[in-house]
Write a structure and sequence with these properties.
This protein has about 400 residues and is α+β, with helices and mostly antiparallel strands. About 50% of the residues lie in helices and about 15% in strands. It contains 11 helices and 11 strands. It is globular.
Length: about 400
């Protein structure tokens, strides 16, 4: 009887078709129709508008600002926020967008991440109604660009001990200090700046043109070259008290913003990894050495198999993180785990893919070296690999290794 019951519920064995080399686990099947539509729309935009120009911008060290209005028209700026002209799409949709944008270039994904997760999000989450109404619709339309000022020249990971200060003086705060490594800094219309006050750390909206506020670009970068990276300088900068974000105090404010950005990174780097893997695979199938394609050699196949495997694992990790976020179940430690793993493996994939191409891998004729250089920055920003290691370590051991 037991055997008959078991047999009745045993599915009929059948041979499934071989999945695509870029989706060996049929992750596409796990996505909804809306999620696939959003992904495919952005993938088409990247293919048609980003890829033809991004190599030139990377080589020249310029940001393709002409794309901002097109990105805004697609509804990608602040797309995961509700109201105020924002699309209000799911976390998974936002993650898929980050994946496709970074398949083009980390600089493009960084622009969208900073605008939506680091500039618009704190206004949306912690701002007054007047601040939201004034900034968010314009930022969603790409008419106003934002940046996020937290990191300082001498305070990277140890942001809680920032030196930038804000002193109340009548109906304004006087800001003094410097912020460094700020994406979008010199093109931003508004900077979300975190500073020490008599109450604790507060966020301020500092508008371009405010006396005492200036920016300077960081040059000689060999990574994120198609992205604007700046310093923000505040010298007795008088910011109206009404420009302070009223609904958050302490490090909870900037850290919640960083978690939003880290979430997008965990997805985004899977796009860079996919591009490097697909480029290496296609090259290996067409590059002839010793009378046959190098894809036929065991060492090359081993590299490609590792790339494909790690890409699948990273995509599944990001997808589960997105599902948890959409259900309100995501914990910051889970973000750290995904950011740490996925950036590590994307960087390893880029390096291995470069080796498959040999000398050709170091030229901008192929996208791999561009992605590899970009990922060196992604490995560091929004929490270094070491910091995320300690976050996870504390979560699983209960021991704080930071101090």
């Amino acid at each position: 009887m037991v055997e008959q019951t078991h047999a009745a519920h045993t599915p009929i064995a059948r041979k499934a078709p071989l999945p695509a080399a870029s989706d060996l686990y049929n992750i596409d099947h796990l996505l909804s129709e809306e999620e696939r539509m959003v992904r495919d729309t952005v993938r088409k935009f990247v293919r048609e508008r980003v890829l033809p120009i991004i190599g030139t911008h990377f080589e020249a060290g310029t940001f393709p600002r002409e794309l901002v209005s097109e990105i805004a028209a697609l509804g990608l700026l602040g797309m995961h926020l509700e109201g105020y002209g924002c699309a209000g799409l799911s976390a998974v949709c936002y993650g898929l967008v980050c994946q496709e944008l970074e398949a083009g270039d980390s600089g493009i994904r960084s622009f969208v991440s900073v605008q939506g997760s680091l500039a618009m999000y704190p206004i949306w989450a912690f701002g007054s109604e007047a601040q939201k109404e004034h900034w968010l619709p314009r930022m969603a339309r790409g008419e106003a660009i934002g940046c996020f000022g937290l990191t300082e020249p001498d305070r990277g990971s140890d942001a809680a001990h920032m030196q930038t200060s804000a002193r109340l003086d009548g109906d304004a705060y006087i800001l003094n200090g410097t912020k460094m490594w700020i994406t979008n800094g010199s093109i931003a219309d508004v900077a979300v700046v975190w500073a020490q006050t008599s109450e604790g750390i507060r966020g301020f909206l500092v508008e371009r043109g405010t006396p005492g506020f200036s920016t300077s670009n960081i040059h000689q970068k060999l990574s994120l070259r198609a992205s604007v990276t700046s310093e923000l300088h505040f010298s007795d900068c008088r910011v109206p008290a009404q420009n302070m974000l009223p609904n958050v105090l302490g490090m909870r404010g900037p850290l919640s913003c960083l978690n939003e950005a880290r979430y997008g990174i965990a997805w985004g780097v899977t796009g860079a990894a996919r591009t490097c893997y697909e480029t290496a695979l296609e090259y290996a199938k067409t590059r002839i050495q010793f009378g046959r394609p190098i894809a036929g050699f065991q060492l090359v196949q081993n590299k490609l198999v590792i790339m494909a495997t790690e890409l699948i694992k990273a995509q599944l990790l990001a997808l589960q993180l997105g599902r948890l976020k959409d259900e309100g179940l995501m914990h910051p430690v889970q973000i750290s785990l995904a950011k740490r793993n996925n950036v590590r493996e994307a960087l390893h994939t880029a390096r291995e893919a470069r080796s498959v191409l040999g000398a050709n891998g170091i030229t901008l004729e192929y996208p791999i070296i561009r992605h590899m250089n970009n990922l060196e920055s992604v490995f560091t920003y929004e929490g270094t690999d070491d910091i995320h290691t300690l976050i996870i370590g504390q979560a699983i051991t209960g021991e704080n290794a930071f101090s």
